[in-house]
Protein backbone atom coordinates (compact mmCIF):
# COMPACT_ATOMS: atom_id res chain seq x y z
CA UNK A 1 0.00 0.00 0.00
CA UNK A 2 2.35 2.73 1.16
CA UNK A 3 6.10 2.88 0.76
CA UNK A 4 6.75 2.41 4.44
CA UNK A 5 4.90 -0.91 4.44
CA UNK A 6 6.81 -2.27 1.45
CA UNK A 7 10.15 -1.33 2.99
CA UNK A 8 9.34 -2.53 6.48
CA UNK A 9 10.55 -6.15 6.25
CA UNK A 10 13.80 -4.97 4.67
CA UNK A 11 14.37 -2.26 7.27
CA UNK A 12 13.61 -4.67 10.09
CA UNK A 13 16.04 -7.14 8.59
CA UNK A 14 18.75 -4.51 8.30
CA UNK A 15 18.26 -3.44 11.94
CA UNK A 16 18.58 -7.08 13.00
CA UNK A 17 21.77 -7.29 10.95
CA UNK A 18 23.10 -4.13 12.68
CA UNK A 19 22.35 -5.66 16.09
CA UNK A 20 24.06 -8.92 15.10
CA UNK A 21 27.11 -7.11 13.74
CA UNK A 22 27.39 -4.96 16.87
CA UNK A 23 27.16 -8.07 19.05
CA UNK A 24 29.88 -9.74 17.04
CA UNK A 25 32.11 -6.67 17.27
CA UNK A 26 31.59 -6.68 21.04
CA UNK A 27 32.29 -10.40 21.34
CA UNK A 28 28.74 -11.07 22.47
CA UNK A 29 26.11 -13.54 21.27
CA UNK A 30 23.34 -11.99 19.16
CA UNK A 31 20.83 -13.70 21.45
CA UNK A 32 21.97 -11.43 24.32
CA UNK A 33 20.25 -8.38 22.80
CA UNK A 34 16.50 -8.03 22.38
CA UNK A 35 15.13 -5.71 19.70
CA UNK A 36 12.24 -3.56 20.90
CA UNK A 37 10.41 -1.93 17.97
CA UNK A 38 9.31 1.56 18.98
CA UNK A 39 5.92 1.98 17.32
CA UNK A 40 4.80 5.37 18.67
CA UNK A 41 2.73 7.19 16.01
CA UNK A 42 2.75 4.02 13.85
CA UNK A 43 -0.69 2.58 13.05
CA UNK A 44 -1.92 -0.92 13.87
CA UNK A 45 -1.68 -2.07 10.22
CA UNK A 46 2.03 -1.38 10.11
CA UNK A 47 2.56 -2.94 13.54
CA UNK A 48 0.83 -6.03 12.14
CA UNK A 49 3.25 -6.01 9.20
CA UNK A 50 6.16 -5.91 11.63
CA UNK A 51 4.63 -8.85 13.48
CA UNK A 52 4.31 -10.71 10.17
CA UNK A 53 8.03 -10.04 9.68
CA UNK A 54 8.79 -11.68 13.02
CA UNK A 55 8.74 -8.77 15.49
CA UNK A 56 6.78 -9.33 18.73
CA UNK A 57 8.02 -6.70 21.25
CA UNK A 58 6.83 -3.12 20.78
CA UNK A 59 7.50 0.10 22.70
CA UNK A 60 5.04 2.97 23.05
CA UNK A 61 5.36 6.46 24.56
CA UNK A 62 1.87 7.93 24.56
CA UNK A 63 -0.48 5.99 26.81
CA UNK A 64 -3.81 6.68 25.17
CA UNK A 65 -2.54 6.07 21.64
CA UNK A 66 -0.91 2.87 22.84
CA UNK A 67 -3.94 1.48 24.64
CA UNK A 68 -6.10 1.89 21.54
CA UNK A 69 -3.51 -0.01 19.52
CA UNK A 70 -3.09 -2.72 22.14
CA UNK A 71 -6.83 -3.33 22.16
CA UNK A 72 -7.03 -3.36 18.36
CA UNK A 73 -4.20 -5.88 18.17
CA UNK A 74 -5.32 -8.09 21.03
CA UNK A 75 -5.59 -11.09 18.66
CA UNK A 76 -1.79 -11.08 18.18
CA UNK A 77 0.67 -12.40 20.81
CA UNK A 78 2.52 -9.09 21.19
CA UNK A 79 4.51 -7.78 24.15
CA UNK A 80 3.95 -4.10 24.91
CA UNK A 81 6.50 -1.88 26.68
CA UNK A 82 5.65 1.54 28.07
CA UNK A 83 8.69 3.74 27.37
CA UNK A 84 7.10 7.15 27.93
CA UNK A 85 6.55 9.21 31.06
CA UNK A 86 3.59 8.13 33.23
CA UNK A 87 1.38 10.62 35.07
CA UNK A 88 -0.51 9.42 38.18
CA UNK A 89 -3.83 9.60 36.38
CA UNK A 90 -2.60 7.16 33.69
CA UNK A 91 -1.28 4.39 35.93
CA UNK A 92 -4.48 2.33 35.78
CA UNK A 93 -4.45 2.25 31.96
CA UNK A 94 -0.80 1.24 32.02
CA UNK A 95 -1.29 -1.44 34.69
CA UNK A 96 -4.22 -2.93 32.81
CA UNK A 97 -2.79 -2.97 29.29
CA UNK A 98 1.00 -3.09 29.20
CA UNK A 99 3.37 -6.01 29.83
CA UNK A 100 6.40 -3.88 30.70
CA UNK A 101 7.11 -0.40 32.05
CA UNK A 102 10.63 0.92 31.46
CA UNK A 103 10.24 4.43 32.85
CA UNK A 104 9.81 4.05 36.61
CA UNK A 105 11.44 6.92 38.42
CA UNK A 106 9.04 7.53 41.34
CA UNK A 107 7.98 5.09 44.04
CA UNK A 108 4.48 6.59 44.10
CA UNK A 109 3.91 5.57 40.46
CA UNK A 110 5.36 2.10 41.10
CA UNK A 111 3.01 1.60 44.07
CA UNK A 112 -0.01 2.61 42.04
CA UNK A 113 0.98 0.29 39.18
CA UNK A 114 1.37 -2.61 41.62
CA UNK A 115 -2.00 -1.89 43.27
CA UNK A 116 -3.78 -1.49 39.94
CA UNK A 117 -2.31 -4.50 38.15
CA UNK A 118 -5.31 -6.79 37.50
CA UNK A 119 -5.33 -9.93 39.65
CA UNK A 120 -5.46 -12.30 36.70
CA UNK A 121 -2.40 -10.90 34.96
CA UNK A 122 1.24 -11.77 35.56
CA UNK A 123 3.30 -9.13 37.37
CA UNK A 124 4.18 -6.05 35.35
CA UNK A 125 7.82 -6.33 34.24
CA UNK A 126 9.58 -3.07 35.12
CA UNK A 127 12.81 -1.14 34.67
CA UNK A 128 14.01 1.85 36.68
CA UNK A 129 14.87 4.79 34.43
CA UNK A 130 18.29 6.22 35.25
CA UNK A 131 19.54 9.61 34.12
CA UNK A 132 23.33 9.65 33.86
CA UNK A 133 23.88 13.01 32.18
CA UNK A 134 21.08 15.29 33.39
CA UNK A 135 20.01 14.89 29.73
CA UNK A 136 17.29 16.61 27.74
CA UNK A 137 14.40 14.71 29.29
CA UNK A 138 14.48 15.41 33.00
CA UNK A 139 13.09 11.93 33.60
CA UNK A 140 14.95 9.26 35.50
CA UNK A 141 16.63 9.00 38.88
CA UNK A 142 20.26 9.87 39.39
CA UNK A 143 22.68 6.95 39.78
CA UNK A 144 22.89 7.64 43.53
CA UNK A 145 19.09 7.29 43.91
CA UNK A 146 18.78 4.13 41.84
CA UNK A 147 19.49 1.53 44.53
CA UNK A 148 16.94 2.81 47.05
CA UNK A 149 14.20 3.00 44.43
CA UNK A 150 15.13 -0.40 42.99
CA UNK A 151 14.94 -2.05 46.42
CA UNK A 152 11.52 -0.51 47.13
CA UNK A 153 10.20 -1.49 43.70
CA UNK A 154 11.53 -5.04 44.05
CA UNK A 155 9.38 -5.43 47.18
CA UNK A 156 6.10 -4.58 45.43
CA UNK A 157 3.94 -7.68 44.88
CA UNK A 158 2.59 -7.09 41.37
CA UNK A 159 5.78 -5.70 39.84
CA UNK A 160 8.83 -7.67 38.78
CA UNK A 161 11.98 -5.61 38.62
CA UNK A 162 13.96 -6.60 35.51
CA UNK A 163 16.55 -3.89 35.11
CA UNK A 164 17.29 -0.33 34.21
CA UNK A 165 16.66 1.88 31.22
CA UNK A 166 18.39 5.05 30.13
CA UNK A 167 18.19 7.64 27.36
CA UNK A 168 21.53 9.47 27.42
CA UNK A 169 21.87 12.61 25.35
CA UNK A 170 22.54 11.49 21.74
CA UNK A 171 26.07 12.10 20.57
CA UNK A 172 27.40 11.26 17.10
CA UNK A 173 30.78 10.38 18.58
CA UNK A 174 31.06 6.63 19.21
CA UNK A 175 33.61 6.91 22.02
CA UNK A 176 31.67 9.65 23.82
CA UNK A 177 28.45 7.63 23.48
CA UNK A 178 30.18 4.56 24.92
CA UNK A 179 31.39 6.63 27.89
CA UNK A 180 27.80 7.65 28.72
CA UNK A 181 26.46 4.11 28.25
CA UNK A 182 29.26 2.83 30.48
CA UNK A 183 27.88 5.00 33.29
CA UNK A 184 24.52 3.28 32.91
CA UNK A 185 26.19 -0.15 32.86
CA UNK A 186 28.02 0.78 36.07
CA UNK A 187 24.67 1.46 37.79
CA UNK A 188 23.35 -1.86 36.47
CA UNK A 189 26.40 -3.72 37.81
CA UNK A 190 26.19 -1.93 41.16
CA UNK A 191 22.55 -2.95 41.64
CA UNK A 192 23.36 -6.54 40.72
CA UNK A 193 26.23 -6.49 43.21
CA UNK A 194 23.58 -5.64 45.82
CA UNK A 195 21.79 -8.87 44.94
CA UNK A 196 18.96 -7.52 42.78
CA UNK A 197 19.43 -10.10 39.96
CA UNK A 198 18.63 -7.75 37.08
CA UNK A 199 18.76 -9.13 33.54
CA UNK A 200 17.70 -6.14 31.44
CA UNK A 201 19.82 -3.15 30.49
CA UNK A 202 17.67 -1.13 28.08
CA UNK A 203 19.76 1.41 26.19
CA UNK A 204 20.47 2.34 22.59
CA UNK A 205 18.21 3.70 19.82
CA UNK A 206 18.39 4.00 16.01
CA UNK A 207 21.40 6.32 16.03
CA UNK A 208 23.47 4.77 18.80
CA UNK A 209 22.62 1.08 19.14
CA UNK A 210 26.18 0.02 18.23
CA UNK A 211 27.71 2.04 21.08
CA UNK A 212 25.04 0.77 23.48
CA UNK A 213 25.64 -2.88 22.54
CA UNK A 214 29.39 -2.36 22.84
CA UNK A 215 28.70 -1.06 26.36
CA UNK A 216 26.57 -4.00 27.50
CA UNK A 217 22.99 -3.19 26.43
CA UNK A 218 20.61 -6.17 26.46
CA UNK A 219 17.72 -4.32 24.82
CA UNK A 220 17.80 -1.68 22.10
CA UNK A 221 14.71 0.45 21.48
CA UNK A 222 14.51 1.24 17.78
CA UNK A 223 11.90 3.32 15.99
CA UNK A 224 13.13 5.34 13.03
CA UNK A 225 15.47 2.71 11.60
CA UNK A 226 12.57 0.22 11.43
CA UNK A 227 9.55 2.36 10.59
CA UNK A 228 11.10 5.41 8.94
CA UNK A 229 10.68 8.99 10.12
CA UNK A 230 7.79 9.92 12.38
CA UNK A 231 5.50 12.91 11.86
CA UNK A 232 6.40 15.84 14.14
CA UNK A 233 5.12 15.46 17.71
CA UNK A 234 1.86 17.26 18.33
CA UNK A 235 2.31 20.20 20.66
CA UNK A 236 1.15 19.57 24.19
CA UNK A 237 2.26 15.95 24.19
CA UNK A 238 5.32 15.46 26.31
CA UNK A 239 8.09 13.67 24.46
C1 LIG B 1 11.25 7.33 20.35
C2 LIG B 1 12.05 6.56 21.34
C3 LIG B 1 12.96 5.58 20.93
C4 LIG B 1 13.28 5.28 19.48
O1 LIG B 1 14.00 6.32 18.93
P1 LIG B 1 14.55 6.21 17.39
O2 LIG B 1 15.60 7.24 17.35
O3 LIG B 1 13.37 6.50 16.52
O4 LIG B 1 15.05 4.83 17.21
C5 LIG B 1 13.62 4.86 21.92
N1 LIG B 1 13.40 5.09 23.23
C6 LIG B 1 12.54 6.04 23.66
C7 LIG B 1 12.35 6.24 25.11
C8 LIG B 1 11.85 6.81 22.73
O5 LIG B 1 11.02 7.76 23.14
Describe the 3D structure.
The chain has 239 residues and is an alpha/beta fold. It has one domain: Alpha-Beta Barrel (TIM Barrel), CATH 3.20.20. 42% of the residues lie in helices and 16% in strands. An eight-stranded parallel sheet has the order 7-6-5-4-3-2-1-8. Strand 3, helix 4 and strand 4 form a beta-alpha-beta unit. The longest helix has 23 residues. The radius of gyration is 17 Å and the shape is globular. The structure holds pyridoxal-5'-phosphate. The site of pyridoxal-5'-phosphate has 13 residues, from strand 8 and helix 9. The site of pyridoxal-5'-phosphate (PLP) has 13 residues, from strand 8 and helix 9.
List keywords for this structure.
16% strand, globular, 8-stranded parallel beta sheet, 239 residues, 9 helices, 42% helix, 8 strands, alpha/beta, TIM Barrel, single chain, binds pyridoxal-5'-phosphate
List strands and helices in order, with pairings.
Blueprint: H1 3-25, E1 34-38, H2 44-52, E2 57-60, H3 63-72, E3 79-82, H4 91-97, E4 100-104, H5 107-116, E5 124-129, H6 143-154, E6 159-165, H7 174-193, E7 200-202, H8 209-214, E8 219-222, H9 224-227
Helix pairs in contact: 4-5, 6-7
Bound molecules: pyridoxal-5'-phosphate.
Residues 38, 40, 61, 83, 167, 205-207, 221-225 line the site of pyridoxal-5'-phosphate (PLP).
Care to give the gist of this entry?
With about 240 residues, the protein is an alpha/beta fold.
| CATH homologous superfamily assignment | Alanine racemase
The CATH class is Alpha Beta
* Spatial strand arrangement across the major sheet: 7-6-5-4-3-2-1-8
Main pleated sheet:
8 strands, parallel
State mean pLDDT (0 to 100 scale).
Answer: 94
**Rg, Å, rounded:** 17 Å
Q: What bound compounds does this protein have?
A: pyridoxal-5'-phosphate
Number of domains: 1
Give me the count of strands. Answer: 8
| H/E element sequence | HEHEHEHEHEHEHEHEH
| Helix count from the secondary structure assignment | 9
**Low confidence ranges:** none
CATH architecture: Alpha-Beta Barrel
